[in-house]
Amino acid sequence: MALARRARPKTCGGGHTFIRAVTGYSSGMTRITADDIRVLAQSTSDDPVLAMVDDTVVVLARSEVPPDAQVIFSAAELNRELGPDVTDAEAEVLAGSLTNRLAR
Q1: Which of 21, 26, 61, 103 could tie 45 with a disulfide, CB 3.0–4.6 Å?
Q2: 4 - beta bridge partners?
Q3: What stretches of 8-87 show up as alpha helix (H) in DSSP?
Q4: What is the pLDDT of residues 16-49, one digit of tens each?
C-alpha cells in the first residue's frame, strides 16, 4: 500500500493559519500521523482541535469546526495526557491510537 501524504497551509475565515494534512493509505483508510500531532501541539489557535472535515484531517480552532465534522482530539487533551512537550515517540504512539479509534 502506498502512503499518500501532503501538507498545505490554509487560512480560515478567522485569519488563523492551519495545516491541512491529507494523509491516508490508498485503501481509503484515514491515518493520523505524528506530524498531525505535532501541528496540534504547536497550534496557536484558540482551543485547537484535530478534526475530520470532508474526509481530511485538519487542525483548526474548535469554533471553526463545521457542524458535520468530527473532532478527533484537542490540544487540551494532548496537554493533559502528555504535557506541554511531546516527544517523537509519544506523537507516533498517540497517532496510532487515534487512527485505531477512527477505524472503529
Answers
A1: 61
A2: 24
A3: 34-42, 75-82
A4: 444 444 443 334 678 999 999 999 999 999 999 9
The H or E element spanning position 7 is: strand 3-11
Buried b or exposed e, range 11-31, using 16+ CB within 10 angstroms: eeeeebebbbbebbeeeeebb
Q: How many residues make up the chain in this entry? A: 104
Q: State residue 95's pLDDT score.
A: 96
Q: How confident is the model at residue 11, as a pLDDT?
A: 41
Handedness of CA 60, 95, 36, 70 (dihedral sign): negative
Q: Which residues make beta-bridge pairs with 18? A: 10
